């Protein structure tokens, strides 16, 4: 089968936007370098999925003030994406559809959840909607995108990662590459949003 045919969207496909939130944009409490650059390609993908009548899922980090991942509690991160604060809001330019499936995670003080599947009903909701293939982009490549992609593969979804619509929080050279490698090993395929747009 030609690559184009393989990227033709249809029933069973869904778009997953991972944590495209204020605190992960440059200037946010856990700003990802170039994190804002994921928004234009993701908006383009949103338009395409909507045109095809396909589901759009948006995960969000949704932490209580005393979340275990915060440094004050002995965790690795500065406080970020605190429930009902500006930092937890969607990126202002993100064209999130009204009927997007919103999945909040990490909303219990004692539990970290990098993956959108962890401690949520995401898998159930996707299965009930007949979704089998996920196109995934967002923030950050080496944490929440990585773990969401790995869980998607483990749960039997066909995972496609939008490689130009993700950015890494890790500053070490190789953090992003290592994450991409793990995704490939798990069975995910990397594609460009341009290729997906061209095929649809
Ligand atoms: C994330 C670190 C802490 C992410 C969330 O969305 O990748 N990273 N919490
Ligand atoms: Zn977090």
In words, what does this structure look like?
This protein is α/β, with parallel strands linked by helices and 200 residues long. The chain contains 6 helices and 6 strands. It has helices at 3-6, 39-51, 122-128, 141-154, 175-186, 193-199; strands at residues 13-18, 56-61, 101-105, 133-139, 158-167, 189-191. Strands 3-2-1-4-5-6 form a 6-stranded parallel sheet, with helices on both faces. The protein is globular, with a radius of gyration of 16 Å. The relative contact order is 0.20. The site of pyrazine-2-carboxylic acid has 11 residues, from helix 4.
Quickly list its features.
200 residues; alpha/beta; 6-stranded parallel sheet; 6 helices; 6 strands; 28% helix; binds pyrazine-2-carboxylic acid; binds zinc ion
Largest sheet: 6 strands, parallel
Apparent shape: globular
Mean pLDDT: 96
List low-confidence stretches.
none
Number of helices: 6
- For the biggest β-sheet, the strand order reads 3-2-1-4-5-6
By DSSP, the count of extended strands is: 6
Distance between the termini: 16 Å
Topology, please?
Elements: H1 3-6, E1 13-18, H2 39-51, E2 56-61, E3 101-105, H3 122-128, E4 133-139, H4 141-154, E5 158-167, H5 175-186, E6 189-191, H6 193-199
Helix pairs in contact: 2-6, 4-5
The chain binds pyrazine-2-carboxylic acid and zinc ion.
Pyrazine-2-carboxylic acid is lined by residues 19, 24, 30, 61, 69, 77, 139-140, 143-144, 169.
């Amino acid at each position: 089968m030609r690559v184009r045919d393989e990227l033709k969207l249809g029933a069973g496909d869904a778009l997953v936007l991972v944590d495209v939130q204020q605190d992960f944009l440059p200037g946010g409490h856990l700003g990802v370098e170039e994190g804002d650059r994921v928004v234009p390609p993701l908006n383009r993908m949103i338009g395409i999925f909507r045109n095809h009548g396909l589901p759009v899922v948006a995960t969000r980090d949704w932490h209580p003030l005393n979340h275990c991942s915060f440094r004050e509690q002995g965790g690795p991160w500065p406080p970020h994406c605190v429930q009902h604060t500006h930092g937890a809001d969607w990126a202002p330019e993100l064209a999130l559809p009204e009927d997007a499936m919103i999945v909040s995670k990490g909303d219990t003080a004692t539990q970290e959840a990098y993956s959108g599947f962890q401690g949520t009903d995401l898998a159930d909701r996707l299965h009930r909607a007949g979704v089998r293939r996920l196109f995934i982009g967002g923030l950050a490549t080496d944490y929440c995108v990585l773990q969401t992609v790995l869980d998607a593969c483990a749960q039997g979804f066909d995972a496609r990662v939008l490689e130009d619509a993700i950015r890494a929080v890790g500053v070490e050279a190789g953090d992003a590459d290592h994450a991409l490698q793990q995704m490939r090993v798990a069975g995910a395929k990397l594609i460009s949003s341009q290729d997906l747009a061209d095929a649809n």
